[in-house]
Design goal:
mainly alpha
């Protein structure tokens, strides 16, 4: 769940003049705060999905939208915001994006309905989409020597990893003693502090030469992704053959075709489609989408298991994510050395296979096992696999393109990887909830319910889906239903893990077939360091 900016930065020589030592340090501090804030928002819901669902009585599709409302803009708007920062100034963009994120967190903190929380998440996601590329380019602009840039990138990477570690601990510990809204409120305060720090400490920089905005490309790809996600997320509750769902998939195809046409004709496309004519790069992009769908889909499945099905406390639900996220920074020096010695191919194969094995292992742990010890094996293996993948996935794409296109290749890989992560919760939620609803529809008849109880249970299931039925306060009826809803949800989400593990296996096969060893060289290592 570590995101990286899908952004192709311009040459550093076109930036503004170097600043004083104090401004240099202040800019790095501001950039690190900004990326840490963006990453906190990305991971924040993982530990509190269960509490949010029970408090708001959110349906399964609404719970998925709460995560994806943040992920979608963070994925599809990053390239455009990278150009906006180059044109109008990275410092201004960081300040404005931090304040926008704060506004989103304020809306989320005041939410008492799923719709309001989804709206707040979407606003914060737009802010994060700007913070990821602007924070990185702000630091690279101020670091004009290789040694200084290496230190700046290391600081930025550390801050990003720190955000991934802080988020579940922040949300879990706060919601242990207060309502879930306070987790968003505290993050909003961090956003305000980030805006003030950037305004006071950072040096302004820009690089407008040769940069222009591809508005048509941005609009069409955003509409395509929203149409696809609407169809996937709402399909189980509305019906896959219903008019709105069919139209959403048709709209996805139309907008995607329009995006391809626009990018072919654009003088400054947000995505260089000619890169996909290189078979190895196209394979790397497919691997990134499929593999990261598998990883984040599995992580979302784990969060539902812990918080919604098992009703674990927020702090208990946070610990597994701390383990997964904490392994990558711990083994990062080893990963960089491996990239030098064996290249990205073997690392990606090993990483994706590790993720697949971890998810199948997690699937084998009975749902009634609520302790941490039975989960330690799959959690550690998941963290190691993710570290191997995130270290090598951008280097794999950079390795197979001409040197002049390495920046765009890295940015494109980041974009498709983030799109894969966005699809993870949507597809897993759709598959799991569809299977759980099907099992419950038939299972309620044999649950020994009175006609009145059966009618109540069926009404709740039809209106809110399996998650709503599992967490609804129906008095004594809830106790009768608990074994059936738990079994149905475990069945559904275990099949979700089959899907994500299969995706990781497919990604491993692609890596084995198309991504070679090719160790050594600076480009792959620089790509890995900037994509941590």
């Amino acid at each position: 769940m570590v995101s990286t900016p899908a952004y192709d930065p311009p040459a550093a020589s076109s930036d503004t003049a170097p600043a004083t030592a104090a401004r240099h340090t202040g800019t790095i501090i501001a950039g690190c705060l900004a990326v840490c804030l963006a990453q906190i928002g990305l991971v924040l819901p993982a530990a509190i999905n269960g509490v949010m669902q029970r408090t708001l009585q959110a349906s399964g599709s609404e719970l998925t939208w709460i995560s994806d409302a943040f992920l979608v803009p963070a994925a599809v708007l990053a390239l455009t915001f990278g150009v906006v920062g180059d044109l109008y100034g990275r410092k201004k963009l960081v300040v404005g994006a931090s304040l926008l994120a704060a506004l989103g967190y304020l809306v989320s903190a005041a939410s008492d309905t799923p719709a309001q929380l989804i709206t707040g998440q979407a606003i914060s996601g737009v802010g994060a989409a700007a913070l990821f590329p602007a924070s990185l380019s702000m630091i690279t602009a101020i670091t004009t020597t290789p040694a200084a840039r290496a230190k700046g990138l290391a600081s930025w990477t550390t801050a990003l990893s720190l955000g991934a570690l802080i988020a579940p601990l922040l949300s879990g510990s706060i919601v242990e003693h207060a309502s879930f809204q306070w987790a968003f409120g505290m993050t909003g305060m961090v956003a305000v502090v980030t805006a003030v720090a950037a305004w006071l400490l950072a040096t302004e920089s820009s690089a407008p030469e040769g940069r222009s905005l591809d508005w048509l490309g941005q609009i069409t790809i955003a509409l395509a992704m929203l149409s696809l996600l609407y169809g996937i997320i709402q399909g189980p509750s509305v019906g896959w053959g219903s008019g709105p769902i069919v139209l959403s998939f048709i709209a996805f195809v139309v907008f995607l075709a329009a995006f391809v046409a626009v990018e072919h004709r654009s003088a400054a496309p947000m995505l260089r489609l000619e890169l996909f004519r290189i078979p190895a790069f196209a394979a790397s992009a497919a691997m990134a989408v499929i593999g990261m769908f598998g990883f984040l889909g599995g992580a979302y499945d784990l969060s539902i298991r812990l918080g919604v099905i098992q009703h674990q406390s927020p702090l208990q639900a946070a610990v597994p994510f701390l383990i997964i996220q904490g392994i990558t920074p711990f083994i990062w020096p080893l990963l960089v050395r491996l990239l030098h010695r064996v290249g990205p191919g073997p690392m990606l194969v090993t990483g994706f296979v590790s993720l697949a094995v971890a998810q199948m292992w997690l699937r084998a742990v009975p749902v009634h096992e609520t302790g941490l010890v039975p989960l330690l094996g799959p959690l550690v293996l998941n963290g190691v696999g993710f570290g191997l993948v995130v270290a090598a996935i951008t280097a794999a794409a950079v390795n197979v393109v001409p040197h002049s296109l390495t920046g765009m290749a890295g940015a494109t890989t980041s974009l498709v990887r983030d799109l894969g992560q966005t699809l993870g919760p949507a597809v897993v939620g759709a598959v799991a909830l569809g299977m759980a609803a099907s099992q419950l529809t038939g299972g309620l008849a044999g649950a020994g319910l009175t006609p009145k109880e059966h009618g109540i249970a069926t009404a709740v299931l039809n209106e809110g889906g399996p998650l709503a039925l599992h967490t609804a306060d129906l008095g004594p009826l809830s106790a009768k239903l608990a074994p059936f809803t738990t079994d149905a949800l475990a069945h559904g989400y275990n099949n979700g893990l089959l899907l994500t593990a299969g995706a990781c296996v497919v990604a491993a096969v692609i890596a084995a077939a198309f991504v070679g060893r090719r160790p050594g060289g600076t480009a792959p290592v620089e790509a890995a360091e900037s994509a941590a």
